[in-house]
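Lecture notes, part 5. Sequence design as translation. It can be helpful to think of inverse folding as translation between two languages: the language of shapes and the language of residues. The source text, in structure tokens, appears below.
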């Protein structure tokens, strides 16, 4: 059955007469609207797990308990502001951009992974991308100009737990930076440091 909520390309756009206080307001997903992330972040709880069913072509490689176990191995000073881990159905926008996770307020949003366990790349991956993924998977294949990275299920799980997830926890703990590249650099260094601390690198 077609689900227009998750597939509408108009989500995030300002057309359609949505105006509030004289300003156009964006159309957010009705399943996970922005105010949900704010409410979860401000309610004082921590480590809540919310799971959305992935589509047929995707799956969640890690359970809520898996993420809890990672958080339990870290200092409380770094995990106390993690309010929720949301296992989200991957949006078409995130699928197109190759985004594995996001942070909203104090919530970590983990996208589902392709059920094929294959990451598709529209062009030859850069040396930086190859180096970035090398500790987790390095089976690159090329077929007619289409590049892909072929994963094993245990590699996907390890990558999600000890890199993607830790990267977003790093964003929650980062100092205030105006420059996006400084925010990403801090989160990346945080993920690598704690992957080593936890014995996964």
């Amino acid at each position: 059955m077609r689900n227009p909520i998750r597939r509408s390309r108009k989500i995030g756009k300002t057309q359609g007469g949505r105006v509030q206080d004289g300003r156009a307001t964006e159309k957010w997903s009705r399943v996970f609207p922005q105010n949900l992330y704010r409410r979860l972040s401000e309610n004082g709880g921590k480590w809540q797990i919310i799971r959305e069913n992935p589509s047929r072509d995707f799956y969640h490689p890690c359970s809520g308990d898996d993420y809890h176990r990672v958080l339990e191995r870290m200092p409380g000073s770094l995990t106390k502001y993690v309010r929720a881990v949301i296992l989200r159905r991957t949006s078409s926008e995130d699928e197109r951009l190759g985004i594995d996770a996001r942070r909203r307020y104090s919530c970590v949003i983990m996208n589902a992974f392709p059920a094929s366990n294959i990451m598709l790349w529209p062009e030859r991956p850069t040396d930086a991308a190859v180096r970035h993924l090398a500790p987790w998977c390095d089976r690159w294949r090329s077929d007619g100009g289409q590049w892909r990275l072929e994963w094993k299920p245990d590699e996907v799980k390890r990558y999600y737990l000890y890199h993607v997830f830790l990267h977003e926890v790093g964003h929650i703990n980062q100092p205030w930076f105006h420059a996006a590249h400084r925010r990403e650099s801090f989160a990346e260094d945080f993920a690598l440091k704690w992957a080593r601390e936890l014995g996964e690198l």
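The translated text above is only one of many valid answers, since several sequences can fold into similar shapes. Helices lie at 4-7, 34-42, 64-72, 76-79, 92-97, 127-133, 153-173, 180-197.
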